[in-house]
Design a protein that fits this description.
The chain is mainly beta. 10% of the residues lie in helices and 42% in strands. The chain is built from four helices and 16 strands. A hairpin with a 3-residue loop joins strand 1 and strand 2.
C-alpha cells in the first residue's frame, strides 16, 4: 500500500493562471494575485519606471482625453510591470491546455511578453485532431488601465495542432477609456528543417468587447473587434499537395499554397489613448504605401484619343 501524502490534494487545474494587478497608494502597482500551474509559468521582471506626470496647466483645459489621462496623478502609475509568460520546455505538447485570466484595476498598466517563440510540437500519429494544444486568455481592463500584450510568434512544428482564443473586455464609457495593444502572429515553422507551413491545423481568434460592469460583474457587452485566422484542415502534411487538393471538399486550403510564400502572418490591434500615437503612426505609414489604382486618372491623357 503506497504511503499517504502529508500534503493536501491540489485544487489547481494544470495550465491555469490568474493575474490581478492593483494600484496601491499613492500610485504603486502590485500583483494582488499571481498564480500558475504546470505547464504554465509566470515570471515578473524589472518594471519600467514612468516619468512623473506633468503638472496640469492652469492656462488652458487639456485638449484631448489622452492629455487628461496623462495629467491625472491619481490614475497614473509610477511604473509598468513586465511579466513573462512561459511554458516548461519552451513549447506545448499535444493536448496541453493553457488558460489565463487577467484583471487590471483602474490606473494600472502591464506589459506581457515571452522569452522566445512558443513552439507547438507535432502530434503523435495516434493523437486525434480534435485534441490540439490550446491557449486561452480572458482579460478585464478597468477604466484608465492599459495592457500591452506582445509575445514572440507562435512556431508550429510539422503535423502540429493549435487553437487559441483571446477575449478582452474594455470599458464602454469614453471618459473612462482603457488602452489595449495586442500582437498576434505566427511563423511558417522550422524553415531551416524544410518545415514551411507544414502544420496540420492552426486557429487563432481575438475578440474585443466594450463592456459595462457593476460590482465587478459584466452587465452588458458589445463586440467591437473580432479577428480570426484558420490554417490547415487537420490532415497530416505528409500527403502531397496534389493528394490534398484532390481530397479537399471545401475546407481550408493547404497553407503551403494559401500563404503565397509568406513566412509570417500577424495582426496588431490597438485601442485607447495610450496607444493613440502608435496607431496614428501606422495609419500614416499605411497611407504612404503605393496602391493599385492610386494613380490620378482625371488629368491623364488617353492614348486612344486621336
Amino acid at each position: 500500500m503506497p504511503p499517504t501524502s502529508p500534503f493536501p490534494p491540489s485544487s489547481s487545474t494544470p495550465g491555469t493562471g490568474h493575474i490581478h494587478l492593483a494600484l496601491q497608494p499613492p500610485n504603486h502597482p502590485a500583483f494582488e494575485t499571481l498564480a500558475f500551474s504546470y505547464p504554465l509559468k509566470l515570471v515578473v521582471s524589472s518594471a519600467h519606471t514612468l516619468p512623473p506626470a506633468p503638472p496640469p496647466s492652469s492656462s488652458r483645459q487639456p485638449a484631448s482625453e489622452q492629455e487628461r489621462n496623462e495629467n491625472d496623478d491619481a490614475i497614473r502609475p509610477s511604473e509598468v510591470p513586465l511579466l513573462f509568460l512561459l511554458t516548461y520546455g519552451g513549447g506545448l505538447l499535444a493536448g496541453d491546455t493553457i488558460s489565463l485570466s487577467l484583471t487590471l484595476d483602474p490606473g494600472t498598466r502591464l506589459t506581457i511578453a515571452t522569452q522566445g517563440s512558443t513552439k507547438v510540437f507535432k502530434s503523435p500519429p495516434s493523437s486525434a485532431p480534435t485534441t490540439p494544444s490550446t491557449q486561452d486568455l480572458t482579460a478585464h481592463l478597468a477604466p484608465h488601465s492599459a495592457l500591452w500584450l506582445a509575445p514572440d510568434p507562435i512556431q508550429p512544428f510539422k503535423d502540429s495542432h493549435f487553437a487559441q482564443t483571446q477575449t478582452f473586455h474594455i470599458p464602454s464609457a469614453t471618459a473612462a477609456a482603457a488602452s489595449l495593444g495586442v500582437l498576434d502572429w505566427v511563423t511558417c515553422g522550422r524553415a531551416a528543417r524544410g518545415e514551411v507551413w507544414a502544420l496540420a491545423s492552426y486557429a487563432s481568434r481575438s475578440d474585443i468587447y466594450l463592456s459595462s460592469s457593476h460590482a465587478k460583474t459584466i452587465t452588458k457587452k458589445k463586440l467591437l473587434v473580432r479577428d480570426a485566422i484558420k490554417l490547415g484542415d487537420g490532415r497530416s502534411s505528409s500527403a502531397t499537395l496534389s493528394q490534398q487538393r484532390a481530397q479537399n471538399d471545401g475546407g481550408p486550403r493547404d497553407p503551403r499554397t494559401a500563404m503565397h510564400g509568406l513566412a509570417l502572418y500577424g495582426t496588431l490591434l490597438l485601442a485607447g489613448p495610450v496607444f493613440a500615437p502608435l496607431a496614428a503612426f501606422f495609419r500614416m505609414e499605411f497611407a504612404a504605401l503605393p496602391r493599385i489604382g492610386g494613380r490620378e486618372w482625371a488629368g491623364a491623357s488617353n492614348p486612344c484619343d486621336g
